[in-house]
Amino acid sequence: MIVFRKNKTVKNMLMAVLICTLPLTSMALLAATSKFLNVESFVNRPVDSDNIKSYGVNILSFTKPVNLEDIKNIAVLDKDFLYVNKVSINDVVYYRLISGNFATLKQAKKHLSRVKKHFSGAWVSIRRKVEKQELTKILAEKILLPEFKQKEVVERLPVVAPIVVAKVIPVITPKIIPAINAKKTSKVLPPIVAKAVPRVVPILVPKLIPRLPPRVIKKIKPKTVIPPQIAFAEKLLEQARQLFLDRNYARVVTVSNKIIEIGSVEQKQKAMEFVGIARERQRKFAQAVAIYSQFLNLYPESKLASKIKIRLTGLKTMRLDPKVQMTKNKRKKMDENWRIYGSLSQYYRDDVVDRDTLDSEQVNSSLVSDVNMYARRKTDKSVIVMRFDAGLVNDFLDKESETRLSRAMINYTNNESSYQLIGGRQSRTAKGVLGRFDGLVYKGLSHDNFDYSVFTGFPVQSSYDSLDSERQFLGSSIHFKPYEKVEMDVYVVQQQLSGLTDRQALGTEFQYRNDKGFLYGIIDYDIFYSDVNNITAITNYRYSDKLVFNMTYDYRNSPLLTTLNALQGQQVESMEVLQTLLSDQEIYQLAEDRTTKSQNIFIGSNYQIDDSRQLYMSLSLSTVEASVESGGVAAAPSTSDINFSTDYSVKGLLFKDDYTTLGVRLSDTSSSEIISLRARSRLAGSKGFRYDPRLRLDYRKSKTSEVDQYILKPSLKVTYKPNKKVSFEGSLGIEYSNFDLPELNDQTQYDVFLGYVYRF
User: Fold this and answer.
1) Which of 346, 462, 463, 591 is paired with 736 by a 20 to 30 Å CA distance?
2) Is residue 502 predicted with pLDDT exceeding 50?
3) How far does CA 251 lie from the centroid of its chain?
4) Which domains are assigned to the chain?
């Protein structure tokens, strides 16, 4: 090991061997034996399904035939291409309910996301050549297979009282022909000649009720779920920024130290910068040098590293001779100038899936461009801060592009009149407002231990959305310190949606800090719906210099209760259209039915063994209640997840300057059991290069089907930073999957990621 650390040639050779052997390890897994038998039965056979394509979705699997009418939520598949096939895996026969007929994997995944809400064990199925041939022949020759008993077709309309009439329709008794390739069939039924036999079938006919318009599927961007601990750290970061503007440097240090304990890597970096600058302003230069040196030791490749190096160099070379100090007037003139900095980045991602039964397919090809700008001007009387964060996503497969706007705001603080005005697209600046919004916030800052806020605007569901004038809110809050170590906020918010009450909430946030840790809590109660929307408690306790505990309890509505929830699963996109079909009370009831309760408990510990070793352990438990079936939307089942993970980090395991983490994660969810092993190392190369190899091995056992899956993914990320302003990144990942399925035994996915960042 000593030879490796000192000999660069040996070091580079070992790294090359590691990089080359990572992809080869993906060949270590073997496929299970399986065999397609025959198409057993058709359930739905749409008229446009003559051309059999490569992809479908496996809904459920059975070991013996069942009556599909007894399956919960089967009605959601009424209009799908639906049939039952018969397979043999290790000499065990399974019947599978297959839905859909898709040409590409992307289309199949889109259908999977829709049905997975009702069938959590569903997965994408790839039709083998023999299955496609049999399906094509059955459809081309119009061969009739035995069909499961179907429910009477009733057109689903808004809540109406139907009038029952009678109509005579012919019923065709099908001619039954033995299924192709069914070698194990022991008995062949005699052919039956189809006859038209009249019978009376009741049909529900609505009486002068407007029909819903055709369903338009809107592309919804997935929401990123932010852990409560990270969200709280972000709030502390905003508070630290404000304290810095108020020149309360002692409080900046206190708040930033809490962020360093619980925040994400990016939040910790910003907090350490705040501490260093605050120490400079307090003229505690030795402490500033210490925190800057610690920053560069932990995060040498950070975006802030260049700024920190400049500050550290300035402190180490600083002379206290009054002759070379900047005069007061000159310093004041410099402070009044604008400081503008930011970054421009572009990243290209390409994902290709290669399977043993089909040709390779490109599933992702996109270019993401982002620009981030920060401008600040400070005088003795006021401070102006402007922020702009936006991006453009080009999807080369769908040949479309989308813009997103995360932040576009102006923050003006008047030190003489003691008030603050924030306008534009923003987040976390108004208490009680859920997420991002377009609006205006006024804060009164006349008292040290008390301030108030008034705010109004329009909520924004996603950064891809433009201003939505259909929803608007108005609210106010007060902030006060009843005790030295306690801070509290109380807020009230009234939110409207197309003339309806969308949200009417009363809530509080509180923080308690001492030398050992902190406690943060939030309670949000909806007055209109008479329901607790959210109760969250986050605590951090430093038992000793080496041992720290974190705990989070979160009880909330999922999603948070608003009247907008009534649109989920409906065939309309706007509340105005829904109001023409349902009464206000029915809309409010739908909103409550689409909202469920969820609970989450997280316990974590961080133990610093010594200067080079660290142990982290965490346990999380979460549950989501089942939703109510109403308004034509099927009920979603309840779920429960348990996760346990542990990570061991050590410096200098392979080389003198590497940092390696080894970890294991155990998960027990409603649909599967997962064991995950992972390893990661950060290696510093020469001339601005840095290497980040990773390896992950997962074993997943499904609880809803016979699927066992192995996933092996080696990857390598390389960063090259030729100077302080520019950095280039590239990564290659190879994910090998063994599905243990007849249609899909082996699959390999290649992920390529290339990009750059320019800082100014």
Assistant:
1) 346
2) yes
3) 33
4) 34-154 (3.30.70), 227-336 (1.25.40.10), 514-637 (no CATH)
